[in-house]
Amino acid sequence: MEIGQEVLLLLKEEITESEYNRYIKQLSYDSKKSTSDLAVFYAPNALVCNWIKSKYTQKIAHLFEVKNNSKVTVSISLKNQLDKRKIKKATEQKTGHSLLNPSHIFDNFMVGGSNQFAYAAVKSVSEKAGQLYNPLFIYGGVGLGKTHLMQAAGNVFQNQGKTVIYTTVEQFLNDFIRHVRNKTMERFQEKYRKCDVLLIDDIQFLSNKEGIQEEFFHTFEALKGAGKQIILTADKHPKKIGGLEKRLQSRFEHGLVADIQPPELETKIAIIENKCEINKVKLTKDIINYIATVIESNVREIEGILSKLHAYSQLMHVDIDLAFTKNVLKDQVQENRANLTMDIITNSVSKDLNIKPSEIRSKGRSKNLVYARRIAIYICRELTQSTMPQLAQYFGMKDHTAISHTLKKINELIVNDEDFKVKIDELTNKITSV
Ligand code: ADP
Ligand code: MG
Fold first, then answer.
1. Which of 174, 201, 202 is nearest to 188 (CA)?
2. Where do the CATH 3.30.300.180 domains begin and end in the chain?
3. Could you point out which of 32, 194, 246, 424 has its C-alpha 20 to 30 Å from the C-alpha of 46?
4. Ligand 1 atom closest to Cα of 233?
5. SS3 for 418?
């Protein structure tokens, strides 16, 4: 048996069976990369990797010392990550563009109102390369899934044996410069004009770079003329990208321009559930709901949050429940919500429920007013730093006892009245996504 495996078996005797089965068992030892003073292990995913790193590295090193009588450094990394990075780097240098991420596929993309148009457009293009919308131009804010969608189409084409080039503007530019320098421009042109599908990410970076715009224009015309599919992404609509040649701008708008908006609550929930499944993290509905309201729009934050939760719960030996989640995400929430005021919240509630802000803040007792006021008070309490007396003053109540009484009532409603809770979640999401 290899020493790495022997050490893991020794460790097994020192920890609980469930800990062993859940984590340590998933480690694999790389005897080829390991040396007399380095032990290399791989973990199957980031969560397991981080957890073992923080909790067991020392112990494993100690066991090596016991077995071997010499000190070793223990390295735990994600399976294939090292190699993948090297391969990726080598590919980029050789070809000037990068590989498609194999997990960016349509099945892993959660569809909702905010992204269904873009999704449908990319999906249909992936079924009929070059024949429907050419170019297809996807735009939207950071972390909303543009790269994911574009690569999902790329993966479909690649599986059909087509030559797909995925590149960012930066890589395209670097490749161009390199070929100019080496006087191999024909090779550059041949490469980009001979591919079946060209995916260019973050096209807004073409802005104000005339030389590359010229080259890109000719690439574009050649591909389009040959009926080859082009997909582009940007952070804004072609019209809003400044410093772009008119002819390029009009070409970009010529096919189909589709936007992605920040996800609504249900879509965020679906994305979180999907990421939990992929990362094998179990969370209750309550917690998923809470996370969905904490992250504003950037979906990229979700993975960070999941791994943070997991690590904390392991280090502190507690289960992940709602109170724990709120505590772990406290700083994140405050940072995100520093600019929210009671006015902003009351105005949003007012708009949504069609009741004037002045009425929400009045002493009126009609059913609708009380309903709106309760929602506004609750959200203000959750999302701002306002104290009870401040809340009382703002909502025209006698004193903090009155507010405290109201909050108690609201908390009862949240538990017993599903519709009320849904409304609060929905509005919280709306307010934090602005
Ligand atoms: P963008 O290119 O718009 O900045 P990305 O495509 O890089 O955003 O997405 C950021 C992260 O969020 C990726 O991990 C991606 O898989 C994930 N993501 C974004 N939107 C969705 C979605 N609708 N369903 C599942 N994952 C998503
Ligand atoms: Mg992107």
1. 174
2. 3-92
3. 32
4. 2
5. helix
Alpha-helical regions (H) of 113-245: 116-127, 146-159, 169-181, 185-194, 210-225
Q: Which ligand is nearest to the CA of 169?
A: 2
Read off the pTM.
0.69
CATH 3.40.50.300 domain residues, the chain: 106-260
CATH number, domain 3-92:
3.30.300.180
CATH code of the domain occupying 106-260: 3.40.50.300
The packing angle between helices 342-353 and 367-383, to 10°, is: 140
CATH 1.10.1750.10, the chain: domain bounds: 342-433
Residue 202 CA, ligand 1 centroid: distance in Å: 14
Per-residue pLDDT of the chain (434 residues; tens, 9 = 90+): 888 999 999 899 888 888 888 889 989 998 888 888 888 999 888 788 888 888 888 899 989 888 888 788 888 888 766 556 666 766 666 676 778 888 899 999 999 999 999 999 999 999 988 788 999 999 999 889 999 999 999 999 999 989 999 999 988 999 899 999 999 999 999 989 889 999 999 999 999 998 899 999 999 999 999 999 999 999 999 999 989 999 999 999 999 999 999 898 889 999 999 988 887 788 889 899 888 888 876 888 888 888 888 888 777 777 888 888 888 888 777 777 777 899 999 999 999 999 999 999 999 999 999 999 999 999 999 888 888 999 999 999 988 899 999 999 999 999 899 899 889 988 988 887 76
Angle between helices 400-416 and 418-433 (to 10 degrees): 110
- The finding on whether 278 has its CB within 6 A of some atom of ligand 1 is no
Ligand number nearest CA of 151 is: 1
Q: Of the bound ligands, which one is closest to the alpha carbon of residue 266?
A: 1
Fold of 265-336: Helicase, Ruva Protein; domain 3 (1.10.8)
Using DSSP, state whether 166 is helix, strand or coil: strand
DSSP states along 18-47: HHHHHTGGG-EE-TTT-BTTEEEEEESSHH
Output the CA–CA distances (angstroms, integers) from residue 144 to 105, 156, 201, 259, in the order listed.
15, 20, 13, 10
Domain 342-433, CATH 3.40.50.300 — does that match?
Answer: no
Nearest-CA residue for atom 13 of ligand 1: 300
Mutate to test the pocket of ligand 1, among 296, 300, 303 (most ligand atoms within 8 A of CB): 300
- Which amino acid is present at 424? I
